[in-house]
Write a structure and sequence with these properties.
This protein has a domain at about 430-570. About 35% of the residues lie in helices and about 20% in strands. It is built from 18 helices and 27 strands. A hairpin with a 3-residue loop joins strand 8 (about 90-95) and strand 9.
């Protein structure tokens, strides 16, 4: 313990953090099972830091440099071996796709650049289950050091932590001088999880170059061999406590030189959709691990260039919309939002005209394609790839079209536990009939308005019609049921649900040209606002429960009315609600409703966006919400991937500004709501040939 403490003290410095020190840095965030993070409170001590899976399990992932014969830990070595020194951390930075750390060691400077590409319109690149870390070395003060780089992982990446777990490994060299190391769990079943970590599939680590050496063995032995020799050799044997690792010689450094490793989690059977296996889109052209590694490393430079352009675009647009605090929030949200999604095709036919997306309700219930998770995630999709709204809804609609769901309202999700999208044929699922009917109709119109695609709506016209009719009968005075924020419990006559129903009916009318539904939406709004069923007697705010003047709520559902230009609720109604929020703000933000001491960041940004409706234009309230969310990510209390749910005041054991239950959820895509007011498809990235091919059969 004393040696570790001295090691930490030696490594300690005063690094800078750009743009801020976040709760947790995304490192390798590509899908629900390749999701590695670094708690922000470990960033200043990167050489001894321990990265984590999104759910908190520690992961082994180390990087060591050898400079003129002396080994230095750069990342992920909590217990260094004899003779290993700690590098000094100089800075840390995150953008929408990159997390970068700068360190110095001996006569060299190093940059560790973790890249998780976001390329939604290139289905091959987006579905490729790989992330990257690039180690760049340069001499300091004119020095020309001799440098070798080492990196390893272990079977924590496949969710195996016990001493007696079955693990098999392999090593291969393939085309383009690519070296491939793999770890696969034994005795596990397809589509099984333990603590949200996949128990099937294969962890993959890849390197490229003629001067790469590899090793398998106890971490102390393999790392020790590198520290002494600058390369790996000797007997290869896997037993508990082992790692798989690479060493690469950079040689004498006279100019910045780098090496890139690709890390992945390969699941040939990615999702179980109604008993049929679906696989990642990229497997249509690459059906084994070796090929995937070659593709990933070959694609790296193009992916990196595209990602850097995306980073600049998001930062620039966000700053122009609402300033630097908003830009900081979006940069931390982007990878997390897309990191919950798998882009798939059938595993048997590999038909690229049959594309579906699946999203995990990370951290809360683990459900598959939860409609009220797609709803708050949708703004980032609207901005970058509206097609994804349809890709995520398509599996839901195909299931509903079978008739196996026995109710006349839409289903909450299509599977209780990701990735098993096996439906709820017994009719038992979370009871959110008004919530999900409203979400589904609104999302469908959001997609068609952005894309101009009328065929898809016609394909499922009878289903949409039925859900609209359900809202006509049940939407204005909802029975006791849950809303999207099910943690608040079930309540009858929720004003927010009635607002959602009104807007959804208006959306359905606009989507299908049926003015009677438009009229129903307007009538609902008139009852709620003009007749004061949904507002207090003084008309100062919407109330949580109809006709209950002593209640209030954050009415985030008004946002879609503004985004889609439906004008269901008047400017006066929007202005009324917006101006009320400062009066109910608690020390750390506005609670979800009058009965709670917690709030949600996605809904706060929805409310901030509603404040910018034409004729309302309340920048003060907009900035209040943005500043509260920004304070959450900078207060140093929450070393977990961006939590969208947090306490807004001190109450009992609850600490204001502290995260509450949720982390790493894709609903942070809702933080793009303000940017989305500028219109769909503002940021087109990854519009590659794969997308063109897939789009040809999109109505399938």
């Amino acid at each position: 313990m004393l040696s570790v403490l001295l090691f930490v003290l030696f490594a300690s410095g005063t690094p800078t953090f750009t743009p801020v020190l976040p709760p947790s840095y995304p490192l390798a965030v590509r899908n629900p099972y390749l999701s590695a993070w670094l708690p922000g409170n470990q960033a200043a001590e990167l050489p001894v830091a321990v990265p984590q899976f999104w759910n908190g399990q520690n992961l082994t992932w180390s990087i060591i440099a050898r400079i003129d014969g002396q080994a230095y830990s750069l990342f992920g070595v909590p217990v260094p071996g004899a003779g290993v020194k700690a590098a000094s951390v100089q800075s840390a930075e995150y953008t929408s796709t990159h997390t970068t750390f700068t360190l110095t060691a001996g006569s060299a400077s190093f940059v560790l650049d973790f890249l998780s590409p976001i390329s939604p319109l290139d289905y091959v690149r987006q579905s490729l289950p790989f992330s990257y870390v690039t180690v760049s070395a340069s001499g300091t003060n004119g020095a020309t050091p001799d440098v070798q780089i080492y990196s390893d992982i272990d079977n924590s990446w496949i969710g195996q932590f016990g001493e007696d777990v079955q693990t098999s490994w392999s090593y291969a060299t393939t085309e383009a001088s690519t070296s491939v190391l793999t770890l696969t769990p034994g005795g596990t079943a397809n589509y099984s999880e333990v603590n949200d970590m996949a128990q099937w599939g294969t962890a993959v680590y890849c390197a490229r170059g003629s001067d790469v050496s590899a090793g398998v063995g106890m971490s102390s032995d393999v790392r020790g061999s590198f520290a002494v020799n600058g390369s790996l050799s000797g007997s290869w044997q896997w037993r508990p406590g082992s790692v798989i690792g690479f060493s690469q010689c950079l040689g004498t450094i006279s100019a910045p030189t780098n090496v890139t490793f690709a890390i992945g989690y390969w699941r040939p059977a990615a999702v179980n959709y109604m008993g049929n296996a679906r696989t990642a889109y990229f497997t249509s052209s690459c059906q084994d691990i070796n090929c995937a590694c070659v593709h990933a490393l070959t694609d790296f430079q193009a992916a990196d260039a595209e990602a850097r352009a995306l980073d600049a675009t998001i930062a620039g647009k966000a700053s122009s919309v609402a300033g630097s605090n908003y830009s900081d929030i979006l940069a931390l949200s982007a990878r997390q939002a897309f990191g919950a999604i798998d882009i798939t095709i059938p595993a048997d036919t590999l038909d690229t005209n049959d594309v579906m997306a699946f999203i995990k309700e990370i951290s809360s219930d683990g459900n598959v394609n939860t409609v009220d998770v797609i709803y708050p995630t949708a703004p980032i999709l609207y901005v970058m790839a509206p097609e994804y709204i349809r890709l995520l809804l398509e599996p839901v609609m195909q299931y509903l079209a079978t008739g196996d769901w026995p109710h006349n309202y839409t289903v909450h999700d299509i599977g209780s536990n990701y990735p098993n999208a096996t439906g709820h044929n017994n009719g038992t699922a979370e009871l959110m009939p008004v919530e999900e009917c409203g979400n589904l109709l609104t999302l469908a119109y959001m997609y068609t308005k952005a894309s101009g695609d009328k065929d898809w709506v016609e394909k499922y016209q009878s289903l949409f019609q039925g859900y609209a009719d359900y809202l006509v009968v049940n939407g204005l005075y909802p029975t006791q049921q849950l809303s999207t924020d099910d943690g608040a419990g079930s309540v009858a006559n929720q004003t927010g649900l009635a607002i959602k129903a009104a807007i959804a009916l208006k959306a359905f009318g606009a989507m299908t040209g049926q003015t009677n539904y438009t009229n129903y939406g307007d009538q609902f709004a008139a009852v709620l606002y003009n007749q004061a069923v949904g507002v207090d007697a003084g008309k100062t705010h919407f109330i949580l429960v109809e006709n209950a003047d002593d209640t209030w709520a954050l009415e985030f559902n008004l946002y879609m009315d503004v985004l889609l230009g439906l004008n269901t609720f008047s400017t006066d109604a929007l202005a009324m609600q917006t101006s009320y929020y400062p009066s109910i703000r608690k020390p750390a933000g506005v609670a979800l409703d009058s009965s709670l001491d917690w709030g949600k960041t996605d809904w706060m940004i929805f409310a901030a966006s509603t404040a910018m409706a034409q004729g309302v234009d309340n920048e003060g309230v907009r900035d209040m919400f943005i500043d509260d969310v920004h304070a959450l990510i900078t207060n140093g209390l929450n070393p977990v991937p961006f939590s969208d749910k947090f306490f807004v005041e001190n109450q009992g054991p609850d600490v204001q500004g502290g995260w509450n239950s949720y982390r790493a959820r894709p609903v942070v895509g809702g933080h793009f709501a303000l940017m989305a007011l500028g219109g769909p498809s503002q940021i087109l990235v990854g519009a590659g040939e794969s997308h063109k091919r897939a789009s040809l059969g999109r109505h399938g």
